[in-house]
Structures are given as C-alpha cells and as structure tokens.
Specification:
The chain has 174 residues and is α+β, with helices and mostly antiparallel strands. Helix content is 43%, strand content 26%. The protein is built from five helices and seven strands; from the N terminus they run αβαββααββαββ. The chain has helices spanning 4-23, 32-40, 68-79, 86-112, 130-136; strands spanning 27-30, 46-54, 58-67, 119-120, 124-128, 143-147, 150-160. The protein starts with a helix and ends in a 14-residue tail after the last strand.
Length: 174
C-alpha cells in the first residue's frame, strides 16, 4: 500500500483530469491561502461530497468540496445547459456526488489496480454555508485547486485495517 502522502498526491493529480473529462472544467493547483482568499470573496454556500471504501486490508474516504455555483456549472456542462438553467440548479449536488464517485473509482484503480475488490459506499453529500465552506479550507491534508475562479478541495485518506479487519458491517468477500 502507498504511503498516505503518495495517495494524496495521486488524488491531486487525478482531480484536474477527471473534472476536465467529465464536466469540461479546467482547474489548476493553488495553495491553501489562495483558496481561502477566493472563498472569502464568494458569498456562496458549498457542497461537500464524500465516498467511503474498504476491503479486508484497508479503509478510507475520498472527499471533495466546491462552491454551489461551481456545482451548478458542473451540472450545466454535464447536462448541456447553462448553470442558471433550472435543471442544472436542481442537479448541482447530484452532479458533484457523481464527480466524487468517478474520482474515487479512478483513484482506487490507480492506487490498487483492477484486481483488488474494494467495497465502495454510495456517495454522501452535504450543503454547507459560506462560513463552514471557508472553514473547510483550513482542514489539514487537503489539496486545493482553482476551477472557474472558484476553489475546489480534495482529501483522500486510506489506512490499513487493524487485526479486526474491515469496519463494522463490512465483509471481506469480493
């Protein structure tokens, strides 16, 4: 298994490619201070989407955060409409959940190959207010990006299971 820092690095390399391929969004890495400044200039709420995974050897989570306005742009691009279109507004959080799901699947395949059978949970999503959005950018271990002049962050954690195996309710079958 890769070291946690290597996993986060691999995750940070995949995010721009997935956003470009899936949602036609171009993004570039930025430092945390630039992300915080960009978030402070927006009065927007945000969306945090995460996907948990586990097998008999490891468990972890891939989590992404983005402004609600960026999620609407993603939804609009995927649906072929403008971000202000009622369909894009209604689909914003679902579109971002799907981005989290796609990134997690690509990341796990990149890290562990096709042979490892991981149990991947359905993505969860939470809308947060502008203050919580800015606070989320202070969390240690995130990678920050600029996408459409809006910050996006990604966190990836993966830890080896102890002697007790996978989390409760999880089995180790394929």
């Amino acid at each position: 298994m890769q070291a946690p820092a290597d996993c986060q690095s691999t995750a940070a390399e995949l995010l721009p490619a997935i956003l470009e391929q899936h949602a036609f969004i171009f993004c570039d890495p930025i430092d945390r201070e630039a992300a915080i400044m960009a978030a402070e200039n927006q009065a927007d709420s945000a969306v945090v989407a995460g996907v948990a995974f586990h097998d008999s050897v490891c468990r972890g989570r891939c989590t992404l955060g983005a402004s609600l306005s960026l999620c609407r742009i993603i939804a609009g691009n995927v649906l072929g409409t403008e971000a202000e279109d009622p369909m894009a507004v209604a689909a914003a959080t679902d579109a971002f959940k799907e981005v989290a799901n796609i990134i997690t699947a690509h990341l796990l395949t990149s890290l562990f190959g096709d042979e490892v059978k991981l149990h991947i949970a359905a993505p969860d999503v939470q809308e947060i207010d502008a203050t919580a959005w800015r606070d989320s950018l202070e969390v240690p271990g995130i990678s920050c990006f600029d996408a459409e002049s809006s910050p996006v962050w990604l966190s990836f954690t993966c830890t080896e299971n102890g002697p007790s195996g996978p989390p409760p309710g999880g089995d180790s079958s394929g």
